[in-house]
Specification:
- The protein is built from six helices and six strands, in the order ααβαβββαβαβα.
- It is an alpha+beta fold.
- The protein has a single domain, classed as NADH Oxidase (3-Layer(aba) Sandwich).
- The strands form two sheets. Strands 1-2-6-5 form a four-stranded antiparallel beta sheet, sandwiched between helices. A two-stranded antiparallel ribbon has the order 3-4.
- A hairpin with a 2-residue loop joins strand 3 and strand 4.
- Helix 1 crosses helix 4, helix 2 crosses helix 4 and helix 3 runs antiparallel to helix 5.
- The site of flavin mononucleotide (FMN) has 12 residues, from loops.
């Protein structure tokens, strides 16, 4: 797919079928994710690939937003690895860039997905026994949209560039 087509096609999917993602496709998505830039190339991301019944039940306990997806990528970041300068750390920024690569490559390969932040962070740490240095960043439920899914109405709603871009005055 052309890059622009991928970007336009990526959208939040909120109803998935039960169809599983082929392992090879998942591996391609994760390989692309590994190409994401991170501060000082420290690559602090930790991506948990969840598709067992037990793990999906755990996800349903901590979030209302799995939408029936057969696989969830639980994107985390290792604070002890990420670049930091005093209080400031790029752990979240790095992992969000990785997650962006994931949703775009998934879309490129025909795998529907959604970025989810609505989940109980402490519950996630507990359910998946995360060590203290591992910070949950987002969930990415993925699979194939259910036939009855009519799309996200917000997908076509974007602000005008005038509202979000400030050109400097060159006079
Ligand atoms: C950081 C972030 C957090 C989000 N969290 C949720 C969420 O918890 N639940 C949900 O249903 N959608 C969530 N979304 C999806 C957005 O609502 C969606 O991307 C937005 O409406 C734009 O629509 P589009 O992705 O179809 O273009 C999130 C998206 C982003 C980028």
């Amino acid at each position: 797919m052309e890059f622009e087509e991928v970007v336009k096609k990526r959208t939040a999917t909120r109803k998935f079928s039960e169809k599983n993602i082929p392992q090879k496709t998942l591996e391609r998505i994760l390989k692309t994710a590994s190409l994401a830039p991170t501060a000082k190339n420290l690559q602090p991301q930790k991506i948990y690939v969840l598709s067992s019944k037990r793990s999906l039940e755990k996800i349903d306990k901590i979030s209302p937003c799995r939408y029936g997806a057969p696989t969830v990528l639980f994107v985390c970041s290792d604070r002890s690895i990420a670049w930091s300068d005093g209080e400031y750390s790029t752990y979240e920024t790095d992992a969000c860039i990785v997650a962006t690569h994931i949703v775009l490559e998934a879309t490129n390969l025909g795998v529907d997905n959604i970025w989810v932040r609505r989940f109980d962070i402490d519950g996630a740490k507990r359910e998946f026994n995360l060590p203290d240095n591992i910070e949950p960043i987002c969930l990415i439920p993925m699979g194939y949209a259910d036939k009855s899914y009519t799309g996200n109405p917000m997908h076509t709603v974007r602000k005008n560039l005038e509202e979000t871009v400030i050109f400097e005055n060159n006079q």
